[in-house]
Amino acid sequence: MPAAQHQAVDKSSGQTSHIEWWNNTLRQRLGRFVRKTLSFSKSDAMHAICLRLFVQEHNLRCLSP
To answer: Where are the domains of the chain?
Structure first.
């Protein structure tokens, strides 16, 4: 991540819990983010594609009533 996009925060700010929530969501719903599973991505391209599809579907689900 470029230094211009990264902003360090204290744990007391509460912002780290949001990031941990997102990381846990990814690990729970995408087996590709869990090491030593059959679905672990060996290809960086497929890993990126699956992540983009998941984020798109997640955003659409959050927007629908």
So the answer is: 38-65
